[in-house]
Design brief:
By secondary structure, the chain is of the alpha/beta class. Helix content is about 35%, strand content about 15%. It has one domain: NAD(P)-binding Rossmann-like Domain (Rossmann fold, 3-Layer(aba) Sandwich), CATH 3.40.50. The longest helix has 28 residues.
Length: about 240
Protein backbone atom coordinates (compact mmCIF):
# COMPACT_ATOMS: atom_id res chain seq x y z
CA UNK A 1 0.00 0.00 0.00
CA UNK A 2 1.17 3.54 -0.73
CA UNK A 3 2.50 5.25 2.38
CA UNK A 4 3.04 1.96 4.21
CA UNK A 5 6.24 1.77 6.25
CA UNK A 6 8.54 -0.91 4.88
CA UNK A 7 11.91 -2.49 5.63
CA UNK A 8 14.77 -2.12 3.17
CA UNK A 9 18.36 -3.33 3.11
CA UNK A 10 20.89 -1.25 1.16
CA UNK A 11 24.26 -2.94 0.69
CA UNK A 12 26.94 -0.34 0.09
CA UNK A 13 24.70 2.48 1.26
CA UNK A 14 27.29 4.71 2.90
CA UNK A 15 28.09 6.95 -0.09
CA UNK A 16 27.24 7.77 -3.69
CA UNK A 17 24.17 6.15 -5.23
CA UNK A 18 23.66 3.87 -2.23
CA UNK A 19 23.46 6.80 0.15
CA UNK A 20 21.12 8.59 -2.25
CA UNK A 21 18.76 5.61 -2.06
CA UNK A 22 19.01 5.53 1.73
CA UNK A 23 18.17 9.24 1.94
CA UNK A 24 15.09 8.85 -0.26
CA UNK A 25 13.75 5.79 1.56
CA UNK A 26 14.35 7.35 4.97
CA UNK A 27 12.64 10.60 3.92
CA UNK A 28 9.63 8.55 2.80
CA UNK A 29 9.30 7.08 6.31
CA UNK A 30 10.75 3.63 5.70
CA UNK A 31 13.15 1.73 7.95
CA UNK A 32 16.52 1.14 6.33
CA UNK A 33 19.38 -1.19 7.23
CA UNK A 34 22.66 -0.08 5.67
CA UNK A 35 25.23 -2.85 5.25
CA UNK A 36 28.65 -1.36 4.51
CA UNK A 37 32.18 -1.02 5.78
CA UNK A 38 31.61 2.46 7.23
CA UNK A 39 28.71 4.70 8.20
CA UNK A 40 28.85 8.39 9.16
CA UNK A 41 25.19 9.43 8.90
CA UNK A 42 23.65 8.02 12.11
CA UNK A 43 22.83 11.41 13.66
CA UNK A 44 21.26 12.75 10.47
CA UNK A 45 19.19 9.65 9.68
CA UNK A 46 17.75 8.24 12.92
CA UNK A 47 15.49 5.78 11.06
CA UNK A 48 18.56 4.08 9.60
CA UNK A 49 20.75 1.48 11.30
CA UNK A 50 24.13 0.18 10.21
CA UNK A 51 25.67 -3.29 10.01
CA UNK A 52 29.42 -3.43 9.37
CA UNK A 53 30.32 -5.64 6.42
CA UNK A 54 33.15 -5.84 3.88
CA UNK A 55 31.70 -7.60 0.87
CA UNK A 56 35.07 -8.97 -0.26
CA UNK A 57 36.12 -10.56 3.02
CA UNK A 58 33.36 -10.79 5.66
CA UNK A 59 30.47 -13.13 6.29
CA UNK A 60 27.19 -11.32 5.73
CA UNK A 61 25.58 -10.42 9.12
CA UNK A 62 22.39 -12.29 8.25
CA UNK A 63 21.35 -12.85 11.87
CA UNK A 64 20.98 -9.10 12.38
CA UNK A 65 18.70 -8.49 9.38
CA UNK A 66 14.98 -7.68 9.73
CA UNK A 67 12.66 -10.70 9.75
CA UNK A 68 10.74 -9.19 6.83
CA UNK A 69 12.61 -7.43 4.02
CA UNK A 70 10.58 -5.55 1.41
CA UNK A 71 13.53 -4.72 -0.80
CA UNK A 72 17.29 -4.98 -1.25
CA UNK A 73 19.60 -2.81 -3.33
CA UNK A 74 23.14 -4.05 -3.95
CA UNK A 75 25.23 -0.95 -4.66
CA UNK A 76 28.96 -1.82 -4.48
CA UNK A 77 30.72 -1.42 -7.79
CA UNK A 78 33.99 -0.62 -9.49
CA UNK A 79 35.33 1.55 -12.30
CA UNK A 80 38.45 -0.06 -13.71
CA UNK A 81 39.16 1.54 -17.08
CA UNK A 82 42.20 -0.02 -18.72
CA UNK A 83 43.09 -1.42 -22.09
CA UNK A 84 42.39 -5.13 -22.46
CA UNK A 85 46.04 -5.71 -23.27
CA UNK A 86 47.07 -4.34 -19.87
CA UNK A 87 44.51 -6.17 -17.74
CA UNK A 88 45.71 -9.10 -15.66
CA UNK A 89 43.39 -12.02 -14.78
CA UNK A 90 43.40 -10.85 -11.16
CA UNK A 91 41.67 -7.63 -12.22
CA UNK A 92 38.81 -9.62 -13.74
CA UNK A 93 38.61 -11.79 -10.60
CA UNK A 94 38.48 -8.76 -8.31
CA UNK A 95 35.74 -7.05 -10.31
CA UNK A 96 33.75 -10.30 -10.50
CA UNK A 97 34.08 -10.88 -6.76
CA UNK A 98 32.89 -7.38 -5.87
CA UNK A 99 30.11 -7.01 -8.43
CA UNK A 100 28.77 -10.56 -8.74
CA UNK A 101 29.86 -12.78 -5.86
CA UNK A 102 29.13 -9.97 -3.40
CA UNK A 103 25.63 -9.65 -4.83
CA UNK A 104 25.11 -13.40 -4.58
CA UNK A 105 26.31 -13.45 -0.98
CA UNK A 106 24.03 -10.53 -0.07
CA UNK A 107 20.85 -11.84 -1.72
CA UNK A 108 21.31 -15.33 -0.30
CA UNK A 109 21.59 -13.80 3.18
CA UNK A 110 18.48 -11.66 2.62
CA UNK A 111 16.40 -14.33 0.90
CA UNK A 112 14.51 -15.53 3.97
CA UNK A 113 13.40 -11.98 4.78
CA UNK A 114 12.50 -11.25 1.15
CA UNK A 115 10.33 -14.37 1.00
CA UNK A 116 8.58 -13.32 4.21
CA UNK A 117 7.33 -10.10 2.57
CA UNK A 118 4.03 -9.97 0.72
CA UNK A 119 5.88 -8.62 -2.29
CA UNK A 120 9.58 -7.77 -2.48
CA UNK A 121 12.08 -6.20 -4.86
CA UNK A 122 15.79 -6.58 -5.57
CA UNK A 123 17.80 -3.95 -7.46
CA UNK A 124 21.27 -4.47 -8.93
CA UNK A 125 23.47 -1.95 -10.76
CA UNK A 126 24.99 -2.65 -14.16
CA UNK A 127 26.57 -0.23 -16.64
CA UNK A 128 25.76 1.19 -20.05
CA UNK A 129 28.99 -0.46 -21.25
CA UNK A 130 27.42 -3.94 -21.16
CA UNK A 131 24.90 -3.23 -23.90
CA UNK A 132 26.79 -0.51 -25.78
CA UNK A 133 30.35 -1.79 -25.94
CA UNK A 134 32.94 0.79 -24.89
CA UNK A 135 36.73 0.62 -25.06
CA UNK A 136 38.67 0.20 -21.80
CA UNK A 137 35.66 -1.42 -20.05
CA UNK A 138 36.51 -5.12 -20.51
CA UNK A 139 36.77 -6.02 -16.84
CA UNK A 140 33.82 -4.10 -15.41
CA UNK A 141 31.58 -4.86 -18.41
CA UNK A 142 32.34 -8.58 -18.05
CA UNK A 143 31.37 -8.51 -14.38
CA UNK A 144 28.27 -6.38 -14.86
CA UNK A 145 27.18 -8.51 -17.82
CA UNK A 146 27.26 -11.52 -15.51
CA UNK A 147 25.24 -9.55 -12.97
CA UNK A 148 22.56 -8.83 -15.57
CA UNK A 149 22.36 -12.54 -16.31
CA UNK A 150 22.02 -13.28 -12.61
CA UNK A 151 19.23 -10.72 -12.30
CA UNK A 152 17.20 -12.27 -15.11
CA UNK A 153 17.71 -15.77 -13.70
CA UNK A 154 16.63 -14.70 -10.20
CA UNK A 155 13.65 -12.82 -11.65
CA UNK A 156 12.46 -16.14 -13.08
CA UNK A 157 13.38 -18.30 -10.10
CA UNK A 158 12.02 -16.01 -7.37
CA UNK A 159 8.81 -14.96 -9.11
CA UNK A 160 6.05 -14.15 -8.48
CA UNK A 161 6.72 -12.69 -5.00
CA UNK A 162 10.18 -11.22 -5.59
CA UNK A 163 10.97 -8.89 -8.49
CA UNK A 164 14.58 -8.51 -9.65
CA UNK A 165 15.85 -5.72 -11.91
CA UNK A 166 19.06 -3.92 -12.92
CA UNK A 167 19.73 -0.25 -13.43
CA UNK A 168 22.39 0.53 -16.04
CA UNK A 169 23.79 4.07 -15.64
CA UNK A 170 26.42 5.81 -17.69
CA UNK A 171 28.88 8.08 -15.89
CA UNK A 172 27.46 9.40 -12.58
CA UNK A 173 28.93 12.14 -10.39
CA UNK A 174 29.82 10.05 -7.31
CA UNK A 175 32.93 9.66 -5.13
CA UNK A 176 33.72 6.46 -7.07
CA UNK A 177 33.84 8.45 -10.31
CA UNK A 178 35.55 11.46 -8.79
CA UNK A 179 38.53 11.16 -11.14
CA UNK A 180 36.27 12.21 -14.02
CA UNK A 181 34.90 15.33 -12.33
CA UNK A 182 36.37 18.57 -10.99
CA UNK A 183 37.76 19.81 -14.31
CA UNK A 184 35.21 22.07 -16.01
CA UNK A 185 36.53 21.55 -19.53
CA UNK A 186 36.69 17.80 -19.09
CA UNK A 187 33.14 17.75 -17.72
CA UNK A 188 31.84 19.76 -20.68
CA UNK A 189 33.55 17.38 -23.10
CA UNK A 190 32.00 14.36 -21.40
CA UNK A 191 28.56 15.95 -21.24
CA UNK A 192 28.63 16.61 -24.99
CA UNK A 193 28.60 12.84 -25.61
CA UNK A 194 25.11 12.50 -24.12
CA UNK A 195 21.83 13.33 -25.90
CA UNK A 196 20.70 15.14 -22.73
CA UNK A 197 23.99 17.09 -22.74
CA UNK A 198 24.86 16.16 -19.17
CA UNK A 199 26.33 13.33 -17.18
CA UNK A 200 24.35 11.58 -14.46
CA UNK A 201 23.67 12.73 -10.92
CA UNK A 202 23.01 10.56 -7.88
CA UNK A 203 19.35 11.59 -7.75
CA UNK A 204 18.81 10.37 -11.32
CA UNK A 205 19.74 6.84 -10.31
CA UNK A 206 18.45 6.87 -6.73
CA UNK A 207 14.97 7.93 -7.84
CA UNK A 208 14.76 5.01 -10.27
CA UNK A 209 15.98 2.62 -7.59
CA UNK A 210 13.35 3.92 -5.17
CA UNK A 211 10.67 3.40 -7.83
CA UNK A 212 11.78 -0.20 -8.41
CA UNK A 213 11.97 -0.90 -4.67
CA UNK A 214 8.71 0.66 -3.57
CA UNK A 215 6.46 0.45 -6.63
CA UNK A 216 6.94 -0.84 -10.18
CA UNK A 217 4.93 -3.96 -9.37
CA UNK A 218 4.74 -4.96 -13.03
CA UNK A 219 8.47 -4.77 -13.77
CA UNK A 220 10.88 -7.68 -13.32
CA UNK A 221 13.81 -9.20 -15.18
CA UNK A 222 14.68 -5.87 -16.82
CA UNK A 223 17.83 -3.82 -17.27
CA UNK A 224 16.73 -0.19 -17.26
CA UNK A 225 19.06 2.40 -18.74
CA UNK A 226 19.37 5.66 -16.83
CA UNK A 227 22.12 7.00 -19.05
CA UNK A 228 21.05 10.32 -20.52
CA UNK A 229 20.05 8.54 -23.72
CA UNK A 230 23.60 7.36 -24.43
CA UNK A 231 22.66 3.74 -25.18
CA UNK A 232 19.72 4.36 -27.52
CA UNK A 233 19.64 7.92 -28.90
CA UNK A 234 21.81 9.54 -31.55
CA UNK A 235 21.56 13.24 -32.30
Amino acid sequence: MEGEQKQFVIVGGSSGIGLGIVNRLSAAGHDVTVVSRTWDQSSALPSVRHLAFDVTSDEFPAADLPDVIDGVAYCPGSIRLRSFRGLKPDAFREDFELNVLGAIKSIQACLKGLRAADSASVVFFSTVAVGLGLPLHASVASAKGALEGLARTLAAELSPKIRVNCIAPALVNTPLAGQFFGDEEKEKAMASRYPLARTGEVEDIASMAEFLLTGATGITGQTLGVDGGMSTVRK
